[in-house]
Amino acid sequence: MISNKSPEEAFELVEGELGLLYDVLYTKASIFYSWCGFLLQCSSFFSSVFAMITFAVFIDHPYSLVDISITYLLLAGAIAMEVYARLTYSL
Predict the structure, then answer these.
(1) Which of 23, 66, 72, 83 is the most exposed place for a label (fewest CB within 10 A)?
(2) Distances (CA, A) of 14 to 11, 23, 30
(3) From CA 42, how far away is CA 32, in angstroms rounded?
(4) What is the pLDDT along the chain (91 residues), one digit of tens a residue?
(5) Any idea what the Cα angle at residue 24 is, between residues 36 and 5, rounded to 5°?
(6) 38-45 long-range contacts, Cβ below 8 Å, gap at least 24?
């Protein structure tokens, strides 16, 4: 398979295979693409949504408006990152 390719094509093929091997061996890709990884990501997303809803329902805290705004911003950022991760890595 690699013998009929030009040197540039062969290097591109080896680069792709080494990149895939690196992802499987040295990153969380093997867990992320498994059934367990899917469940962990879903539980993380729903935990963030639940935390935001809970904070919104029990808003009668004696905290300042700045603290409440920062909390909403952080929770919205966490939810946005979870959605972005799911959309990016599912393609």
Answers:
(1) 66
(2) 5, 14, 20
(3) 11
(4) 677 888 888 899 899 889 888 877 877 767 777 888 888 888 999 999 999 999 888 877 788 889 889 999 999 999 999 999 888 866 5
(5) 140
(6) 41/82, 41/85, 41/86, 44/82, 45/79, 45/82, 45/83, 45/86
